[in-house]
Amino acid sequence: MIRVVCCYCKKQVRTKPSDTDAVSHGVCEQCLPLMVRELGQPMQEYLDELRPPVLVVQDNARVIAANAAARKMLTWEQLEICGDLAGEVLGCMHAREPGGCGQTVHCKSCAIRQCVTYTMDTGAPCRKTAFADIGLVSGDKRISFLIETEKVNSFVRLTMYDIEEG
Question: Domain 41-165 adopts which CATH fold?
């Protein structure tokens, strides 16, 4: 078992399954503002420096932040997507159906929802190929892309790679 300990307050953040007993370091939610203040870089600036499109989501795939690459790809402004579900932000055709994102029969097989939920529940990263219809402003486009999720404190970073129109 690997114990993850906050490098500021030394409180145990979580444990991870492992064949060996070890200690790793991270930052707990209470100390995160201190770390950000010490680093001197706001989260949005950090996200915007990342090249691939990135969404930061809470449980249920609710988007709380997007980097510049994601906003450019989606033709949405940051304030327009904060609080929306990932399917709404990506323009999933099923998010437009009655019930919306996360509530249709198709949502159970959604790679994005599966990865976000898995990572949120287990803390383990996830990597899958996903498909979406995006571009509500310019007309729908079918795209495929590789997604990776990683848990960061109580959020999940959803990164999109190899984006192809299909």
Answer: Beta-Lactamase (3.30.450)
What would the pLDDT profile of 38-54 be if each residue is shown by its tens digit?
666 677 888 898 999 99
| 7-13 long-range Cβ contacts below 8 angstroms, 24+ apart | 8/34, 8/35
Q: Distance between CA atoms of 95 and 112, rounded to whole angstroms?
A: 13
Q: What is the pLDDT of residue 136?
A: 47
The mean pLDDT value for 46-65 works out to 90
In DSSP notation, 83-149 reads TSBHHHHHT-GGGGSTT-TTSSGGGGG-HHHHHHHHHHHH---EEEEEEEEE-TTT--EEEEEEEEE
- How many CA atoms lie within 13 Å of 57's alpha carbon, on the beta-carbon side? 30
Domain ranges of the chain: 1-40, 41-165
Mean pLDDT of 17-43: 73
Q: Which residues pair with 55 in a beta bridge?
A: 66, 158
